[in-house]
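Exercise (ungraded).
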Amino acid sequence: MKVYLTRRYLFVASHRLHNAMLSDASNLETYGKCNNPHGHGHNYFLEVTVSGPVAAETGMVCDLGALDSVVTREVLNRFDHQNLNHLQEFADIVPTTENLTLCIQQILSLTQFPAHLEGVRIEETGNNSFEYSGAQPPRR
Amino acid sequence: MIYLTRKAEFSAAHYYHNPEWTPEENQRVFGKCANLNGHGHNYTLEVTVAGEVDAITGFVIDLKLLKDILNRHVLDDFDHRHLNKEVAEFSNQVPTTENLAVAIWKRLVANLHPARLHRVRLYEQPDLFVDYYGE
């Protein structure tokens, strides 16, 4: 038996979409208002999905406290109330939410996790969301 | 193939307790949820069915029929109930969101003809939900 459990977290951060390889005009054309030199910010909602069998003695796929503490330690403490462009993770890549999603999946996949990591999804705004689940397409 | 999702809400009480464990063990594993006086949630259930669109009706399944099935097999038994004390499946297993989703799947899977049950998604709270695909 395989059950999928998803937990939702919030972090807030600022960023600016700008690629140093492109001209200023090209950056403005590509990124529009996201290229504002002073940056802007979002409330990011992160959904982390784990999966596995339900343990008979606990009725659980995963200890939620353990999941929360890993995500808090590895992701929220790293990104919350930060300027993403100033972080080492985005020294060489543009902090689009696509790249942020890949980055968080990578961080979590290298961590000792309390259950199998199925994928991550980030809502940048109420209208934009990004999802990555490795080689598999997201379950619908 | 078309997927159709119907949403429903129910409110229920529960607590987490494994009778084979000591009170200290239950407290350590289940934390606040181990309070034997119980607590409750507003659950949001999303049931997704899959099927072909009927050439005459244009339906995968009649929505009124789906609503009646959800009421008869799930909500009538779960809504405004104490899950540990009043729902048969939880007389001998912990009513976690995981076990609830699986129990709801088992109640529905044989009753959705002509559609096929694809997914049961159950929100315990807006920041926590479980998906079960019958795997």
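Further reading is listed at the end of the chapter. For now, observe: The CA atoms of residues 70 and 113 of chain A lie 7 Å apart. Chain A touches chain B through 22 residues (CB under 8 Å).
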